[in-house]
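Reopening this ticket.

The earlier resolution said the output was attached, but the attachment link was broken on my side. Pasting everything inline this time so it's all in one place.
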Amino acid sequence: VIALDRQEKGKGELSAIQEVERDYNIPVAAIVRLENLIEYLQDDDSNIESLDMIQKYRDQYGSS
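Inline output:
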């Protein structure tokens, strides 16, 4: 179990979590996914700065 799935790209075609599941033959469950955090931040205008930084992070490192 991980707290936040940052939904990152892996080294190949899989996401980072999919690579962990494959390499260690264990399921990975996330309490919250990055997309959930983004949706939450979008609901409150006081989070614009944080939202912008997180979206830039997702654009650079996020899996498709």
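Reporter confirms the inline version is readable. Residues 2-61 form one domain. The beta strands are 2-5, 30-33.
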